[in-house]
Design goal:
The chain is α+β, with helices and mostly antiparallel strands. Among the domains are: 118 residues, GIY-YIG endonuclease (3-Layer(aba) Sandwich); 170 residues, Alpha-Beta Plaits. The chain is 32% helix and 24% strand. The two termini are 13 Å apart.
Protein backbone atom coordinates (compact mmCIF):
# COMPACT_ATOMS: atom_id res chain seq x y z
CA UNK A 1 0.00 0.00 0.00
CA UNK A 2 1.22 3.51 -0.79
CA UNK A 3 1.95 5.83 2.09
CA UNK A 4 -0.16 8.93 2.53
CA UNK A 5 0.67 12.45 3.70
CA UNK A 6 -1.40 15.24 5.19
CA UNK A 7 0.04 18.70 4.69
CA UNK A 8 -0.77 22.30 5.54
CA UNK A 9 0.34 25.15 3.29
CA UNK A 10 0.53 28.81 4.23
CA UNK A 11 -0.64 30.97 1.33
CA UNK A 12 0.61 34.41 0.37
CA UNK A 13 -2.39 36.05 2.10
CA UNK A 14 -1.67 34.19 5.35
CA UNK A 15 -4.50 31.68 5.05
CA UNK A 16 -4.02 27.91 5.37
CA UNK A 17 -4.70 25.11 2.89
CA UNK A 18 -4.96 21.50 4.12
CA UNK A 19 -4.64 18.56 1.74
CA UNK A 20 -3.61 14.93 1.42
CA UNK A 21 -1.53 13.10 -1.19
CA UNK A 22 0.58 10.04 -1.94
CA UNK A 23 3.47 12.06 -3.41
CA UNK A 24 4.25 15.12 -1.30
CA UNK A 25 7.04 16.44 -3.53
CA UNK A 26 4.89 16.24 -6.66
CA UNK A 27 1.89 17.74 -4.91
CA UNK A 28 3.89 20.66 -3.49
CA UNK A 29 5.36 21.34 -6.92
CA UNK A 30 1.84 21.39 -8.40
CA UNK A 31 0.68 23.91 -5.81
CA UNK A 32 3.70 26.14 -6.35
CA UNK A 33 3.08 26.11 -10.10
CA UNK A 34 -0.59 26.98 -9.80
CA UNK A 35 -2.10 23.59 -10.73
CA UNK A 36 -2.54 22.02 -7.29
CA UNK A 37 -5.89 23.62 -6.49
CA UNK A 38 -7.82 26.70 -7.48
CA UNK A 39 -7.58 28.13 -3.96
CA UNK A 40 -3.78 28.02 -3.78
CA UNK A 41 -3.40 29.07 -7.41
CA UNK A 42 -5.04 32.38 -6.49
CA UNK A 43 -2.77 32.88 -3.45
CA UNK A 44 0.77 32.16 -4.65
CA UNK A 45 3.40 31.67 -3.44
CA UNK A 46 2.62 28.95 -0.91
CA UNK A 47 4.87 27.46 1.77
CA UNK A 48 4.75 23.99 3.34
CA UNK A 49 4.48 24.51 7.10
CA UNK A 50 3.20 21.15 8.40
CA UNK A 51 3.24 17.49 7.35
CA UNK A 52 2.12 14.13 8.78
CA UNK A 53 2.87 10.69 7.33
CA UNK A 54 0.46 7.70 7.33
CA UNK A 55 0.77 4.09 6.23
CA UNK A 56 -2.09 4.43 3.71
CA UNK A 57 -3.61 7.26 1.68
CA UNK A 58 -7.04 6.49 3.18
CA UNK A 59 -5.75 7.24 6.68
CA UNK A 60 -4.24 10.46 5.41
CA UNK A 61 -7.50 11.48 3.77
CA UNK A 62 -9.51 11.01 6.95
CA UNK A 63 -6.94 13.01 8.90
CA UNK A 64 -7.18 15.73 6.24
CA UNK A 65 -10.95 15.93 6.69
CA UNK A 66 -10.53 16.12 10.45
CA UNK A 67 -8.07 19.02 10.28
CA UNK A 68 -10.18 20.85 7.70
CA UNK A 69 -12.95 21.10 10.29
CA UNK A 70 -10.72 22.80 12.85
CA UNK A 71 -10.57 26.48 13.71
CA UNK A 72 -7.54 28.51 12.69
CA UNK A 73 -6.35 28.64 16.32
CA UNK A 74 -6.47 24.87 16.55
CA UNK A 75 -4.54 24.49 13.28
CA UNK A 76 -1.90 26.90 14.54
CA UNK A 77 -1.55 24.85 17.72
CA UNK A 78 -1.03 21.72 15.59
CA UNK A 79 1.52 23.45 13.36
CA UNK A 80 3.43 24.65 16.42
CA UNK A 81 3.20 21.17 17.97
CA UNK A 82 1.27 22.53 20.97
CA UNK A 83 -0.76 19.33 21.20
CA UNK A 84 -1.84 20.10 24.75
CA UNK A 85 -3.71 23.18 23.45
CA UNK A 86 -5.86 21.33 20.90
CA UNK A 87 -8.80 20.51 23.21
CA UNK A 88 -9.34 24.10 24.38
CA UNK A 89 -9.52 25.35 20.78
CA UNK A 90 -12.27 22.89 19.84
CA UNK A 91 -15.43 24.88 19.29
CA UNK A 92 -19.01 23.76 19.64
CA UNK A 93 -20.79 22.96 16.36
CA UNK A 94 -24.39 22.82 17.59
CA UNK A 95 -27.26 24.85 16.16
CA UNK A 96 -26.65 27.86 18.43
CA UNK A 97 -23.18 28.28 16.93
CA UNK A 98 -24.17 27.75 13.32
CA UNK A 99 -24.33 30.70 10.94
CA UNK A 100 -25.37 30.05 7.35
CA UNK A 101 -22.71 31.04 4.81
CA UNK A 102 -22.67 31.29 1.04
CA UNK A 103 -21.48 28.09 -0.60
CA UNK A 104 -17.74 27.64 -1.06
CA UNK A 105 -16.02 25.44 -3.70
CA UNK A 106 -14.51 22.23 -2.33
CA UNK A 107 -10.92 23.41 -2.75
CA UNK A 108 -11.68 26.55 -0.74
CA UNK A 109 -13.03 24.43 2.09
CA UNK A 110 -9.57 23.10 2.70
CA UNK A 111 -8.89 26.47 4.32
CA UNK A 112 -10.23 28.76 6.73
CA UNK A 113 -10.21 30.01 10.17
CA UNK A 114 -13.86 29.75 11.09
CA UNK A 115 -15.89 28.82 8.02
CA UNK A 116 -15.13 25.11 8.41
CA UNK A 117 -16.53 25.16 11.93
CA UNK A 118 -19.68 26.90 10.77
CA UNK A 119 -20.22 24.47 7.89
CA UNK A 120 -21.03 22.08 10.74
CA UNK A 121 -20.04 18.65 9.44
CA UNK A 122 -22.36 16.23 11.26
CA UNK A 123 -21.52 12.75 9.92
CA UNK A 124 -19.50 10.76 7.42
CA UNK A 125 -19.87 7.58 5.35
CA UNK A 126 -17.57 5.81 2.89
CA UNK A 127 -18.07 3.39 0.01
CA UNK A 128 -15.32 1.59 -1.90
CA UNK A 129 -15.48 -0.38 -5.16
CA UNK A 130 -12.88 -2.55 -6.87
CA UNK A 131 -11.68 -1.98 -10.40
CA UNK A 132 -12.10 -4.75 -12.98
CA UNK A 133 -10.63 -6.72 -15.86
CA UNK A 134 -12.49 -9.17 -18.11
CA UNK A 135 -10.30 -12.19 -18.83
CA UNK A 136 -12.70 -14.08 -21.11
CA UNK A 137 -15.98 -13.38 -22.86
CA UNK A 138 -15.30 -9.98 -24.40
CA UNK A 139 -18.28 -8.92 -26.53
CA UNK A 140 -19.98 -12.27 -25.89
CA UNK A 141 -20.67 -11.40 -22.26
CA UNK A 142 -23.35 -9.08 -23.63
CA UNK A 143 -25.09 -12.08 -25.16
CA UNK A 144 -25.04 -14.18 -22.00
CA UNK A 145 -21.75 -16.04 -22.40
CA UNK A 146 -20.23 -17.25 -19.15
CA UNK A 147 -17.20 -15.02 -18.61
CA UNK A 148 -14.24 -14.89 -16.24
CA UNK A 149 -13.68 -11.50 -14.61
CA UNK A 150 -11.25 -10.42 -11.92
CA UNK A 151 -11.37 -7.49 -9.45
CA UNK A 152 -8.22 -5.42 -9.16
CA UNK A 153 -6.27 -4.09 -6.21
CA UNK A 154 -7.04 -0.62 -7.57
CA UNK A 155 -10.43 1.02 -7.25
CA UNK A 156 -12.34 4.11 -6.21
CA UNK A 157 -13.87 5.35 -2.99
CA UNK A 158 -16.64 7.84 -2.29
CA UNK A 159 -16.63 9.70 1.01
CA UNK A 160 -19.73 11.63 2.08
CA UNK A 161 -19.91 14.21 4.83
CA UNK A 162 -23.18 15.79 5.96
CA UNK A 163 -23.21 19.57 6.14
CA UNK A 164 -25.86 22.14 7.00
CA UNK A 165 -25.82 24.01 3.71
CA UNK A 166 -28.55 22.79 1.27
CA UNK A 167 -26.06 21.87 -1.43
CA UNK A 168 -24.13 18.92 -2.80
CA UNK A 169 -20.49 19.95 -3.10
CA UNK A 170 -18.54 17.43 -5.16
CA UNK A 171 -14.81 16.91 -5.72
CA UNK A 172 -13.16 14.19 -7.83
CA UNK A 173 -9.49 13.42 -7.22
CA UNK A 174 -6.88 11.50 -9.18
CA UNK A 175 -4.55 8.81 -7.86
CA UNK A 176 -1.96 11.56 -7.30
CA UNK A 177 -4.32 13.53 -5.08
CA UNK A 178 -5.04 16.22 -7.68
CA UNK A 179 -8.59 17.57 -7.92
CA UNK A 180 -9.76 17.29 -11.53
CA UNK A 181 -13.42 18.18 -11.02
CA UNK A 182 -15.27 20.46 -8.62
CA UNK A 183 -19.04 20.89 -8.85
CA UNK A 184 -21.82 22.41 -6.76
CA UNK A 185 -25.46 21.31 -6.98
CA UNK A 186 -28.44 22.99 -5.33
CA UNK A 187 -30.63 20.78 -3.17
CA UNK A 188 -33.27 19.50 -3.17
CA UNK A 189 -33.75 20.35 -6.87
CA UNK A 190 -30.40 18.69 -7.64
CA UNK A 191 -29.48 21.40 -10.12
CA UNK A 192 -25.90 22.04 -11.24
CA UNK A 193 -24.88 25.53 -10.09
CA UNK A 194 -21.26 25.71 -11.15
CA UNK A 195 -18.31 23.50 -11.94
CA UNK A 196 -14.62 23.68 -12.74
CA UNK A 197 -12.59 21.11 -14.61
CA UNK A 198 -8.81 20.67 -14.61
CA UNK A 199 -7.94 20.19 -18.27
CA UNK A 200 -4.41 19.14 -17.29
CA UNK A 201 -5.73 15.79 -16.06
CA UNK A 202 -6.24 12.89 -18.48
CA UNK A 203 -9.30 10.71 -18.72
CA UNK A 204 -12.04 13.30 -18.33
CA UNK A 205 -13.78 16.16 -20.09
CA UNK A 206 -15.44 19.41 -19.22
CA UNK A 207 -18.92 17.90 -19.75
CA UNK A 208 -18.49 15.52 -16.86
CA UNK A 209 -20.27 17.79 -14.36
CA UNK A 210 -23.37 17.80 -16.56
CA UNK A 211 -23.12 14.04 -17.02
CA UNK A 212 -22.73 13.65 -13.26
CA UNK A 213 -25.89 15.71 -12.80
CA UNK A 214 -27.75 13.31 -15.11
CA UNK A 215 -26.41 10.30 -13.20
CA UNK A 216 -27.51 11.77 -9.87
CA UNK A 217 -30.99 12.40 -11.29
CA UNK A 218 -31.13 8.75 -12.40
CA UNK A 219 -30.20 7.70 -8.86
CA UNK A 220 -33.06 9.82 -7.56
CA UNK A 221 -35.41 8.22 -10.12
CA UNK A 222 -34.61 4.88 -8.45
CA UNK A 223 -34.83 6.35 -4.95
CA UNK A 224 -36.94 9.55 -4.75
CA UNK A 225 -35.60 10.28 -1.26
CA UNK A 226 -32.00 10.49 -2.48
CA UNK A 227 -30.56 13.98 -1.83
CA UNK A 228 -34.09 15.24 -1.21
CA UNK A 229 -33.01 17.07 1.91
CA UNK A 230 -32.83 20.55 3.43
CA UNK A 231 -29.30 19.79 4.53
CA UNK A 232 -26.39 19.07 2.22
CA UNK A 233 -23.42 16.87 1.51
CA UNK A 234 -19.71 17.23 0.87
CA UNK A 235 -18.56 14.40 -1.43
CA UNK A 236 -15.03 13.40 -2.38
CA UNK A 237 -14.15 10.59 -4.80
CA UNK A 238 -10.63 9.17 -5.08
CA UNK A 239 -9.40 6.73 -7.71
CA UNK A 240 -6.24 4.76 -6.94
CA UNK A 241 -5.29 4.18 -10.59
CA UNK A 242 -4.71 6.47 -13.60
CA UNK A 243 -8.15 7.15 -15.09
CA UNK A 244 -6.96 6.31 -18.59
CA UNK A 245 -6.11 2.75 -17.55
CA UNK A 246 -9.74 1.79 -18.03
CA UNK A 247 -10.06 -0.24 -14.83
CA UNK A 248 -13.54 1.05 -14.11
CA UNK A 249 -13.73 4.77 -13.31
CA UNK A 250 -17.40 4.78 -14.33
CA UNK A 251 -18.45 1.41 -12.91
CA UNK A 252 -16.85 2.06 -9.53
CA UNK A 253 -18.61 5.43 -9.39
CA UNK A 254 -21.96 3.81 -10.22
CA UNK A 255 -21.50 1.10 -7.60
CA UNK A 256 -20.48 3.61 -4.95
CA UNK A 257 -23.44 5.87 -5.72
CA UNK A 258 -25.79 2.89 -5.62
CA UNK A 259 -24.37 1.86 -2.25
CA UNK A 260 -24.81 5.38 -0.88
CA UNK A 261 -28.36 5.74 -2.20
CA UNK A 262 -29.34 2.12 -1.48
CA UNK A 263 -30.45 1.38 -5.05
CA UNK A 264 -29.79 -1.52 -7.42
CA UNK A 265 -26.41 -0.83 -9.11
CA UNK A 266 -27.27 -2.94 -12.16
CA UNK A 267 -30.43 -0.88 -12.76
CA UNK A 268 -28.46 2.32 -12.31
CA UNK A 269 -25.84 1.10 -14.79
CA UNK A 270 -28.56 0.25 -17.32
CA UNK A 271 -29.98 3.78 -17.19
CA UNK A 272 -26.61 5.52 -17.37
CA UNK A 273 -23.56 3.94 -19.04
CA UNK A 274 -25.08 0.61 -20.04
CA UNK A 275 -23.09 -2.58 -20.55
CA UNK A 276 -23.15 -6.16 -19.34
CA UNK A 277 -22.68 -5.39 -15.64
CA UNK A 278 -19.63 -7.60 -15.05
CA UNK A 279 -17.76 -4.52 -13.88
CA UNK A 280 -20.38 -3.90 -11.19
CA UNK A 281 -19.97 -7.50 -10.02
CA UNK A 282 -16.19 -7.02 -9.80
CA UNK A 283 -16.72 -3.82 -7.82
CA UNK A 284 -18.55 -5.87 -5.19
CA UNK A 285 -16.42 -9.02 -5.01
CA UNK A 286 -12.91 -9.63 -3.71
CA UNK A 287 -12.17 -12.76 -5.72
CA UNK A 288 -12.40 -13.84 -9.37
CA UNK A 289 -15.93 -14.43 -10.61
CA UNK A 290 -17.81 -16.24 -13.33
CA UNK A 291 -20.35 -13.78 -14.67
CA UNK A 292 -23.43 -14.51 -16.77
CA UNK A 293 -25.76 -11.75 -17.95
CA UNK A 294 -29.45 -12.65 -17.91
CA UNK A 295 -32.67 -10.84 -18.74
CA UNK A 296 -33.20 -10.14 -15.03
CA UNK A 297 -30.49 -10.30 -12.37
CA UNK A 298 -27.03 -11.53 -13.46
CA UNK A 299 -25.58 -14.80 -12.22
CA UNK A 300 -22.37 -14.17 -10.29
CA UNK A 301 -20.29 -17.05 -8.93
CA UNK A 302 -17.12 -16.53 -6.92
CA UNK A 303 -14.42 -18.94 -8.13
CA UNK A 304 -10.83 -19.86 -7.34
CA UNK A 305 -8.37 -18.87 -10.04
CA UNK A 306 -4.95 -19.60 -8.59
CA UNK A 307 -2.99 -21.60 -11.20
CA UNK A 308 0.54 -22.79 -10.50
CA UNK A 309 1.72 -20.67 -13.43
CA UNK A 310 0.23 -17.42 -12.07
CA UNK A 311 3.74 -15.98 -11.68
CA UNK A 312 4.04 -16.20 -15.47
CA UNK A 313 1.03 -13.97 -16.15
CA UNK A 314 1.40 -10.26 -16.86
CA UNK A 315 -0.84 -7.34 -17.76
CA UNK A 316 0.47 -4.86 -20.32
CA UNK A 317 -1.01 -1.38 -20.73
CA UNK A 318 -1.21 -0.25 -24.35
CA UNK A 319 -0.15 3.33 -23.53
CA UNK A 320 -3.52 5.02 -23.93
CA UNK A 321 -7.21 4.42 -23.46
CA UNK A 322 -8.19 2.57 -26.60
CA UNK A 323 -11.19 2.99 -28.91
CA UNK A 324 -13.04 -0.32 -29.29
CA UNK A 325 -15.98 1.17 -31.20
CA UNK A 326 -15.31 -0.68 -34.47
CA UNK A 327 -15.36 -4.11 -32.85
CA UNK A 328 -18.47 -3.32 -30.82
CA UNK A 329 -20.32 -2.06 -33.89
CA UNK A 330 -19.55 -5.24 -35.82
CA UNK A 331 -20.57 -7.40 -32.90
CA UNK A 332 -23.85 -5.54 -32.49
CA UNK A 333 -24.86 -6.38 -36.06
CA UNK A 334 -24.65 -10.08 -35.10
CA UNK A 335 -26.68 -9.94 -31.90
CA UNK A 336 -29.09 -12.85 -31.57
CA UNK A 337 -27.26 -14.87 -34.24
CA UNK A 338 -24.38 -16.18 -32.14
CA UNK A 339 -25.85 -19.01 -30.09
CA UNK A 340 -23.12 -21.47 -31.09
CA UNK A 341 -20.34 -18.96 -30.50
CA UNK A 342 -21.76 -17.99 -27.11
CA UNK A 343 -21.72 -21.63 -26.06
CA UNK A 344 -18.14 -22.03 -27.30
CA UNK A 345 -16.99 -18.99 -25.30
CA UNK A 346 -18.68 -20.35 -22.20
CA UNK A 347 -16.90 -23.68 -22.66
CA UNK A 348 -13.56 -21.96 -23.21
CA UNK A 349 -14.10 -19.92 -20.05
CA UNK A 350 -14.66 -23.07 -18.00
CA UNK A 351 -11.59 -24.70 -19.53
CA UNK A 352 -9.37 -21.65 -18.95
CA UNK A 353 -10.47 -21.56 -15.32
CA UNK A 354 -9.52 -25.22 -14.87
CA UNK A 355 -6.26 -25.22 -16.86
CA UNK A 356 -3.50 -26.73 -14.70
CA UNK A 357 -0.46 -26.00 -16.87
CA UNK A 358 0.76 -23.04 -18.90
CA UNK A 359 0.86 -24.88 -22.22
CA UNK A 360 -2.85 -25.74 -22.10
CA UNK A 361 -3.69 -22.27 -20.83
CA UNK A 362 -1.92 -20.66 -23.79
CA UNK A 363 -3.69 -22.94 -26.27
CA UNK A 364 -7.06 -21.97 -24.81
CA UNK A 365 -6.22 -18.26 -24.98
CA UNK A 366 -5.28 -18.72 -28.63
CA UNK A 367 -8.57 -20.48 -29.39
CA UNK A 368 -10.49 -17.71 -27.63
CA UNK A 369 -8.68 -15.03 -29.68
CA UNK A 370 -9.30 -16.97 -32.88
CA UNK A 371 -13.04 -17.21 -32.24
CA UNK A 372 -13.43 -13.53 -31.37
CA UNK A 373 -11.32 -12.52 -34.37
CA UNK A 374 -13.51 -14.52 -36.71
CA UNK A 375 -16.67 -13.02 -35.23
CA UNK A 376 -15.75 -9.32 -35.28
CA UNK A 377 -13.41 -9.56 -38.30
CA UNK A 378 -10.49 -7.87 -36.56
CA UNK A 379 -6.96 -9.21 -36.19
CA UNK A 380 -5.83 -10.42 -32.74
CA UNK A 381 -3.49 -8.11 -30.86
CA UNK A 382 -0.61 -10.58 -31.16
CA UNK A 383 -0.85 -10.57 -34.93
CA UNK A 384 -1.07 -6.78 -35.01
CA UNK A 385 1.60 -5.77 -32.50
CA UNK A 386 3.49 -8.72 -31.05
CA UNK A 387 3.96 -11.32 -33.77
CA UNK A 388 7.51 -12.04 -32.57
CA UNK A 389 6.55 -12.48 -28.90
CA UNK A 390 7.63 -15.78 -27.35
CA UNK A 391 4.50 -16.13 -25.18
CA UNK A 392 0.77 -15.82 -25.81
CA UNK A 393 -1.11 -12.53 -25.60
CA UNK A 394 -4.84 -11.87 -25.30
CA UNK A 395 -6.96 -8.75 -25.50
CA UNK A 396 -9.12 -7.96 -22.48
CA UNK A 397 -12.59 -6.47 -22.48
CA UNK A 398 -13.60 -5.13 -25.89
CA UNK A 399 -10.79 -5.56 -28.44
CA UNK A 400 -8.63 -2.53 -28.59
CA UNK A 401 -9.02 -2.40 -24.81
CA UNK A 402 -6.57 -0.77 -22.51
CA UNK A 403 -4.73 -3.84 -21.14
CA UNK A 404 -3.73 -7.17 -22.62
CA UNK A 405 -2.90 -10.38 -20.81
CA UNK A 406 0.47 -11.95 -21.62
CA UNK A 407 2.02 -15.23 -20.59
CA UNK A 408 5.76 -15.02 -20.24
CA UNK A 409 8.90 -15.24 -18.13
CA UNK A 410 11.73 -13.07 -16.81
CA UNK A 411 12.25 -11.65 -20.31
CA UNK A 412 8.67 -10.39 -20.66
CA UNK A 413 9.32 -7.00 -19.08
CA UNK A 414 12.27 -6.24 -21.38
CA UNK A 415 10.38 -7.38 -24.49
CA UNK A 416 7.47 -5.01 -23.99
CA UNK A 417 9.63 -2.11 -22.85
CA UNK A 418 11.69 -2.44 -26.02
CA UNK A 419 8.41 -2.18 -27.91
CA UNK A 420 7.59 1.04 -26.08
CA UNK A 421 5.14 -0.36 -23.51
CA UNK A 422 6.42 0.69 -20.10
CA UNK A 423 3.55 -0.46 -17.89
CA UNK A 424 3.91 -4.23 -17.40
CA UNK A 425 2.28 -5.45 -14.19
CA UNK A 426 2.60 -8.99 -12.79
CA UNK A 427 -0.71 -10.69 -12.04
CA UNK A 428 -0.05 -10.73 -8.30
CA UNK A 429 0.41 -6.94 -8.23
CA UNK A 430 -2.82 -6.08 -10.03
CA UNK A 431 -5.44 -8.69 -9.18
CA UNK A 432 -7.05 -9.24 -5.79
Amino acid sequence: MDKGFVYILECADGTFYTGSTKDIELRLNQHQNGIGAKYTAERLPVKLIYIEEFTTISEAFYREKQIQGWSRKKKVALINKKIENLPKFSECNNETHYTKKASTPLSHRNENSENNEKQNIVGQSRSYSNGKLLITGEYFVLEGAKSLAVPTKFGQDLVVEHIKEPQLIWGSFTEKGSCWLEAVFDLPKLRLVNASFNSEEEGGNDNFAENLNKILLQVRALNPDFLNSENGFLVKTNVTFPKNWGLGTSSTLINNLASWAKVNPYKLLATTFGGSGYDIACAQHNSPILYTKTATEPIVEEVIFNPEFKEQLYFVYLNKKQNSREGIQRFNTLKGKLISEVNQISSLTEAILKADNLHDFEKLLFEHEKLVSKTIQLKPVQELLFSDYFGQTKSLGAWGGDFILATGNDNTLNYFKQKGFETVIPYRDLIL
